[in-house]
Amino acid sequence: EQGRLSSSDNLKELTSTKFDCEFDNTHYHLIGNGQMVSEFKQGLQKAGVSDDKVTVEMYFNHKADVDAEAVERIAAAVMETATASVV
Q1: What residues have CB less than 8 Å from 66, skipping those under 6 apart?
Q2: In angstroms, rounded to a whole number, what is the distance separating the alpha carbons of residues 7 and 2?
Q3: In 1-87, alpha helices (H)
């Protein structure tokens, strides 16, 4: 988990931003390693982000298995951020 963008500590950094935006108006553009892109795409889907709000660019590692725990962490972080932005 250490060094991964989807690690718990790194997700806290990604989602602790205090910019003013509505969850429904956010677009996610995922670029990079195929495994990371796939994990984030699945995590966003699990968090309720519609497919039309996500675009991807994968450059390598397209066939790597997705880490289900990483998907869960990503979904939880996105849902927590969405809930916080509503408050």
Answers
A1: 35, 38, 39, 42
A2: 6
A3: 8-15, 34-46, 68-86
* pLDDT, tens digit (0-9, with 9 covering 90-100), for 23-82: 677 888 998 899 999 999 999 999 999 999 999 999 888 899 999 999 998 898 888 877
Q: Which residues contact 79 (CB under 8 A, 6 or more apart)?
A: 47, 48
User: What is the pTM assigned to this prediction?
Assistant: 0.78
d(Cα 72, Cα 46) in Å, to the nearest integer? 8
Adjacent-strand bridge partners of 31: 57
The residue behind tokens 């066939």 is: 63
Q: Are the CB atoms for 45 and 76 separated by under 8 Å?
A: no
SS3 percent helix, strand, coil of the chain, rounded to 5, is 55, 15, 30
